[in-house]
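P.,

For your records, the input lines for the assembly:
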Amino acid sequence: MSTDTTPDTDTSTGTSTDTDTDASTESKCGASTPDTADAGASTESKCGASSTDEKEVGSTVEDFDAEPGRLVAVGLGPGQPEGMTQRAQTALGEVEHIVGYTTYIDLIPDEITEDADDIYSTPMCGEVSRTEEAIDRALAGNDVGIVGSGDPNVYALAGLALEILESKGGTASMVDFEVVPGVPAAQSCAARLGAPLVNDTVSISLSDHLTPMPEIESRLHAVAGEGFTIAIYNPWSRKRRENFQKCCEILLNHRDPETPVGVVHGAGREDEATEIVELGDLEELGETDLIDMTTTILVGTGDTYVWDDRMVTPRGYESKYDY
Amino acid sequence: MSTDTTPDTDTSTGTSTDTDTDASTESKCGASTPDTADAGASTESKCGASSTDEKEVGSTVEDFDAEPGRLVAVGLGPGQPEGMTQRAQTALGEVEHIVGYTTYIDLIPDEITEDADDIYSTPMCGEVSRTEEAIDRALAGNDVGIVGSGDPNVYALAGLALEILESKGGTASMVDFEVVPGVPAAQSCAARLGAPLVNDTVSISLSDHLTPMPEIESRLHAVAGEGFTIAIYNPWSRKRRENFQKCCEILLNHRDPETPVGVVHGAGREDEATEIVELGDLEELGETDLIDMTTTILVGTGDTYVWDDRMVTPRGYESKYDY
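Structure tokens returned:
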């Protein structure tokens, strides 16, 4: 799932949409000792991305009397309901509370969200506080689903949820923690391009919010020099243009400028756009609408070619068979 | 999808299961000039893995008079019907013929297979001939779905289908070629382990049937020396033990022997088994039932740890927040 918080986006407080008559905007976690650091109770930005203050964990397991409920992290896939697995739909139908970034909550079919007791959604920032909120609600006795696009193990909250649980003195077993996989962006974007990935492949994020850029550059050098197809997540943002430029430079260091590159912007959204370009032309596209935070870029290998508007990375059979 | 043909498996001819009264075992492709190389018509092994003969493509677009039907490559995900996306189910419900490896065909819900006009399934080998069969049927005017586990862009047939179409003188547009993504094995196995992947990740196959081992080794060295979590596909087979041993050796060359490694055997099958071990103990597990062709191995980074029986690779927030 892509839940990356980026420094250059707006921040807002959390919104709790209760499908019952109680329309309070306060945290529903039921903690007996509300703390100003509790997600949703404060109007401060929970984005964290623009703040360097240490934030204390709000509640710990000692603050709850109830038998904990379940916590399930659900990958929604590319976006539209049709992209959800049967298991994801079932899992969300079985929980009482659903927590997530507003855009992803909106992607869930109405029949599922209407069935939940409570929906807690926040806009762009707030990944940490949102996950804390979900965990607090589970510790308070509710069955909770936390959602994101793609898959929970792809730049997403499976790891964050477990880390926060631990810091609260809880365990994964306590909330019967479960991960429901979904289709990652690399594969859903690849499907739009034909067969760009196919063999050994790498996913790299250009977001240096949590990983220093020198490490990212080192990784790019390592894989660009080998026969990996490369899926680039979070390629660009207004404050990180130079990361994208550096990435293009490194790729060209190892691969031909004619190497096919698939660019998928806003997959699953109304402004979705897909293009196949050449590696040598990629950098200048960074200044167009095609490449922004919603874009996934798939870089071919020396064997990749473009045919009938599709990107094709061969399996390798053609050297064995004349088919 | 995993459709890798391995040399050390049994080979058999294709079987066409007609849900109508016509129970012929011949190819249903309708080509007007059957060739002994046509999939299904010959009793020779179509596996190809054990043969070094060049095989001619059977039919080309000139052999067909009909308006071509559609061809859709569908990823079934991890295996059980609940792991299929809504879109995958819909796509298979809309085709007339479904083609695939027998084990994957068996995973499709009965209500979908019973609705199809024809099911063409073959055992382990025959990936190339099976894909040719599917394309011939589409060129003959049928709407055809070709299936595999996982996702069509992960060691699977999206690329193969496009290559074969081209060799037959066809185009992707001619058959309205579509790829329906599914959950890859790396992510569905990761879900069973907790949060092992999370950040930049790599998928590498140890099958050297189509990629020379020296290249695979070079790729392993490149990524093991960087902070990638690594998903290893096709880690072991009776004839390729040394590939697995070499892989373990290379990983230990770069990573601590205490590095957590998740091993998922037979995901989605009755004999499914999941274990978290240490990298230093991985090689000897190659001689146990845990590691075979149905196993996916997920290697952690220097930051990965084991907690409450889950593998956790941190997102990186813990250096910024005290949560």
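Two observations worth noting. The CA atoms of residues 275 and 308 of chain B lie 13 Å apart. Confidence is low (pLDDT under 50) at residues 3-54 of chain B.

Regards
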